[in-house]
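Record format v2
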Amino acid sequence: MSWELKSDRPIYTQLIEQLELRICSGIYPPGSRMPSVRDLAREASVNPNTMQRALTRLEEDGLLHTSRTSGRFVTEDINLINQTRNKLAQEQVRIFLKGMSDLGFENSEILSILTDTVKEWSI
Amino acid sequence: MSWELKSDRPIYTQLIEQLELRICSGIYPPGSRMPSVRDLAREASVNPNTMQRALTRLEEDGLLHTSRTSGRFVTEDINLINQTRNKLAQEQVRIFLKGMSDLGFENSEILSILTDTVKEWSI
DNA sequence: ATTATTGTATTAAGGCCTTAATACAATAAT
DNA sequence: ATTATTGTATTAAGGCCTTAATACAATAAT
């Protein structure tokens, strides 16, 4: 998975989302060691300071913890990870339904559009 | 409908989205006259320059046109408005499915989550 | 013991966004 | 004819974000 950073929002907020995503989807497994700040920054083509800023946020949320000089580690609290995953999913759903509703689509329409799109995707 | 401007993205991009939304959902009907730049700016609590920047963009897309000193008007091209509405809707769907997929949800799960959420909302 | 790697902190520069204050041109309204 | 309202343009200031260049402390690796 690439980092897909766009210029329409602050990079550090996008990094936060990407990192959350990678932890929630198991790319960085529970308890595993994260790449160093410098490595992550190089990988995402951003300044180490910017990556650090994002990592600090994940730490505040408890998804990461730091062991001074041996690096950062993903939490082993699977419960927290799952809660985060569900929180992110619900947020996606909420934004989607709000957006479609604002465009004037009825619930029934939304469901049928989605069903159709999913079918097309899976063909 | 209030303007709901957040600070996590440039305001002018949010204004563009809001204005598109209002045209597509009929709040500003086809052919109708828009409030003046200054009035819109006051309404959204932003600087006239910022509102102007957003309006210029809508104009480039053909959703608005200007009649020098009598104001801006919404296009009468209902076809264009509908195309825009569908484009925005498809974009919502695409982002939603991408987001849920990145979180590791299967298509079937996505559909059932959405169905459930819609049911809860309508209770 | 020494070295390399880790996270962390600081400072300066530049860029984009937003606001604010003005001003001007065109024309509808009077 | 005059006035008010419209869109439009310009300039300066401040804020946040990002990068870049450094430096330091702690400790794992050697």
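Residues 79-122 of chain B form one domain.
Chain B is about 60% helix and 5% strand.
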